[in-house]
Amino acid sequence: MSAFYDTLETRPPEEREAALLAALPGQIAHAQKHSPAFADILAGVDAASITSRAALAQLPVTRKYQLLERQQAQRSTNPFGGFATHGFGPAMPRVFASPGPIYEPEGQRKDYWRMARAIYAAGFRSGELIHNCFSYHFVPAGAMMENGAHAIGCSVFPGGTGQTEQQVQAMAELQPAGYIGTPSFLKLILEKAQAMGTPLPSLRKALLSAEAFPPSLQQWMQERGVTGYQCYATADLGLIAYETEARQGLVVDEGVIVEIVRPGTGDPVPEGEVGELVITTLNTDYPLIRFGTGDLSAILPGHCPTGRTNVRIKGWLGRADQTTKVRGMFVQPGQVIEVAKRFPQIQRVRLVITGAMANDQMTLHVETLETAPGLVQLLQDTVREVTKLRCEVQFHHPGRLPNDGKVIEDARSYD
């Protein structure tokens, strides 16, 4: 049996990139025509001209809070804020809600969220039973995984959340091949099974998501006979990336275009630098174009040792929203980047907030080879113009600032 879900995973990278970029103009034109939100967001954009990553990078980033704002503004007339291309009915079998609330539509296509690829990479195969412990209530997580499992020919027990004793009993009696859910809940189930004296000999693999899955927990589960792999997905976008047996980053899904941008902007960062994940999907029912996830990650060099040739990301490295209140004023990453853009000699910046409560101090740390007289004053004046706040300036040689995606660091003491 093949180690790969399909041949898309091993195609030459140039072929993949050409296919994604060839599909992009049509997806943008479709969004402009059928999604009122993107008709507005992308007004005046010539879809036929968006045939490269450079062209894509010129389009605005839509972030989750903007999606929520549009939904809230149109709640009585269009609960999806104009982003969905279908209304209620046969083309939209189910509707889900995430915190906000943000409402997400489900389309008719098989494996609508494209989760089958991640489930397959975790070792599940046709003819097996999967114990699915993601929630089926309100949120789409349970359905996302179930649809993917069905796509590869698996049966699913909808365990949902809670009731660990009943979960253990069902596992002991149905003998599933593996588990899908959060790593913390699987740990609780395994601990409960041990406390009950109930062996779970069939439980040998797991696909885990929605939480961190550190090496220590991987080892803990491995010692109990369960090999777990993680994936990264969201309710808006579906699968973004998944882990393989190589355990070297997460391989990007075949149905999305991934960009890493500087937080607070839409500007792509150099490969390897940490930034915000921005995703464009090829989903025609919910065509999110340059959707900012708010999550930080970075591109890994090279390809997966398993033979999969798509780009890899490091995984989840934190949140990109670093908006901070200083002396009663909000300071946003975009403002810091705006300051940096006015000085071409600057390579990277980081605004660090220090001090104790009610005694905030701002220092703009700047990577540059040029420290001409007067540059400090120019930077201070520009920061004050943009943020209405004063700051100090410190220069650094290129490469000295941390590569963690942070544009604003809140290092204040709240003791």
From TrEMBL:
PANTHER family: BLR5969 PROTEIN. InterPro entries: AMP-bd_C_sf (IPR045851), AMP-dep_synth/lig_dom (IPR000873), ANL_N_sf (IPR042099). It comes from Comamonas denitrificans. Residues 131-280 form the AMP-dependent synthetase/ligase domain. This is AMP-binding protein. It holds the Pfam family AMP-binding.
